[in-house]
């Protein structure tokens, strides 16, 4: 898309994306940083979402690759979930280019606030594996594509939703859930990117600069997942949830 940005703006977007990549690898929610930054740079909303997907795809790929190499994430174990996440995101991306997103904008603060409160007041969440509340098949068939749809349609906190859906509904420990969330988030980002590409909404210079920043931040963030475990991930989730609620309530 033919939008001209200054080099100072491009440099600022690179730094924001690096911070977002680090945060995303730990707890999700990096979109809280990158989407407002893109909007403040003067991009139209759909172009901001599209350009955000270009850099988010790089970040989730970098984090996923690091976790796979370290033996924490296993793509073969969630192959079906990856396909369904991709399909859900593709559908959401097509629809966001055809319809307004006012309804989601109203509902999201309440949803994120609920996640933050649950995480804050559930001290044992994700520290160890727990008995599942729903079957693996149900989680893959219904929860995963629904989150994928949300990511294609809007996006912020998708990694958090994937992580907590496994921890809460499947009883998975939070380190493993976070590792799987990186793979699923890459699948949804890739699907969304493809369909935004077809729509011609990406601002390439901004997106490529942010891709480099995201990849750098995600590389270090993924290493912190392995080293920090649940003690680091859980407070990051709470912080990002309430930061996003504040953003939507006070700065939308």
From TrEMBL:
Pfam families xrefs: TauE
Database matches in InterPro entries: TM_pro_TauE-like, TSUP
Bilayer-crossing regions: 80-98, 104-121, 142-164, 193-220, 232-251
Membrane topology: Multi-pass membrane protein
Protein name as catalogued: Probable membrane transporter protein
Organism this protein belongs to: Neisseria shayeganii 871
Family: Belongs to the 4-toluene sulfonate uptake permease (TSUP) (TC 2.A.102) family.
Compartments where found: Cell membrane
Keyword Nucleus part of the UniProt annotation: no
A cellular component annotation (GO) from this entry: plasma membrane
């Amino acid at each position: 898309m033919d939008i001209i940005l200054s080099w100072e703006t491009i440099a600022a977007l690179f730094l924001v994306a690096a911070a977002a990549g680090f945060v995303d690898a730990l707890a999700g929610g990096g979109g809280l940083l990158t989407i407002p930054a893109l909007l403040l740079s003067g991009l139209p909303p759909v172009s901001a979402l599209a350009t955000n997907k270009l850099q988010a795809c790089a970040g989730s790929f970098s984090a996923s690759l690091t976790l796979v190499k370290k033996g924490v994430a296993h793509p073969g174990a969630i192959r079906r979930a990856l396909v369904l996440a991709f399909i859900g995101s593709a559908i959401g991306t097509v629809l966001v280019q055809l319809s307004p997103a006012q309804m989601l904008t109203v509902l999201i603060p309440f949803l994120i606030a609920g996640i933050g409160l649950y995480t804050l007041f559930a001290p044992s969440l994700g520290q160890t594996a727990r008995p599942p509340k729903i079957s693996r098949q149900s989680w893959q068939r219904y929860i995963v594509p629904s989150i994928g749809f949300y990511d294609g349609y809007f996006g912020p906190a998708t990694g958090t939703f994937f992580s907590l859906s496994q921890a809460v509904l499947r009883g998975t420990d939070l380190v493993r859930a976070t590792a799987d969330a990186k793979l699923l988030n890459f699948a949804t980002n890739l699907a969304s990117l493809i369909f935004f590409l077809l729509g011609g909404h990406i601002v390439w210079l901004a997106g490529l600069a942010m891709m480099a920043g995201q990849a750098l931040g995600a590389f270090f963030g993924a290493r912190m997942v392995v080293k920090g475990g649940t003690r680091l991930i859980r407070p990051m989730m709470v912080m990002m949830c309430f930061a996003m609620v504040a953003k939507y309530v006070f700065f939308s």
